[in-house]
Amino acid sequence: MRYPLEFKGKLVFFTTTDNIKTSGFLMESGGDEIAIFVHGMGGSFAKDGFLFGAGKLLERGISFFAFNNRGAEIVKSFKNTRGDKYYTFGTAFEKFEDSARDIKGAINYLESLGYQKFHLIGHSTGCQKILYYAWKRKDKRVKSLIFLSPSDDYPIWEEYLGDELEKAVEIAQNMEDRGYGNTLHYFIYRRTGAIWSASRFLSFADRERNEARMFNYDSSLPILGKVKSPMLFFFGTYDDTLYHEFEWYEEKIKNARKFGKTEIVKVPRGDHSFHGKEEEVFERIAEFIYSL
Questions:
Q1: Same-domain check for residues 128 and 164
Q2: For residue 84, what pLDDT is reported?
Q3: 3-state helix, strand, coil in the chain (%, to 5)
């Protein structure tokens, strides 16, 4: 890619199902089929590489919509449609389960424009969010799930904190029990500089919680086995959030997926965001969607 980059589309504002205003970027192809991009931690809809790669979808008649879920950026202010109530979310303070309200709001909005077939593309923690949505909502409008770098945050933080992970979890649980779950976890901040509320940290550091269960590769990945939608997975060989070789993840997913079409793609020299590989990845996504 060369800069400056310009994209044809339109900026839109819409509401989640609990009446929070958010924004997105719509690139239309003219058909009734659309792929919805769900970003990960600290991300946003304005991910230039993926917007660039989305051109491969448009060539196949598949529209593309990238939007901000309430986990956008690190700390971000949202407000309701009246503009008289503000919320502090972003990655640091969002509640993982609320992502289903964001995704459903995006689908409802796009359906009002005439779209009928929806494909969810998750990147990083966006993978956990689209799997959770499919598992909990069972939305028949969603025709497939596409996972870009579906890593697990637990071992990442286990490496960061080592023996102190257990202490960090204990502190966060104590804060939550005393009604301070939405307060900054200072223990984590002092040691790593990362900004998390206690509850947000527990969301991926407590194996019993929904977010931590989605891609717990130390388990049998039972939720993957319960969702029957066609699925496409991408793993980059240079992804520093992965702790095993591609074949290990491939086997875990294949063993979990008893039903539904499943394709698992190895991207040589692909990093966590597939920099320089975006067109290659989105060409494969277009082929997968077109084959359904």
A1: no
A2: 84
A3: 40, 20, 40
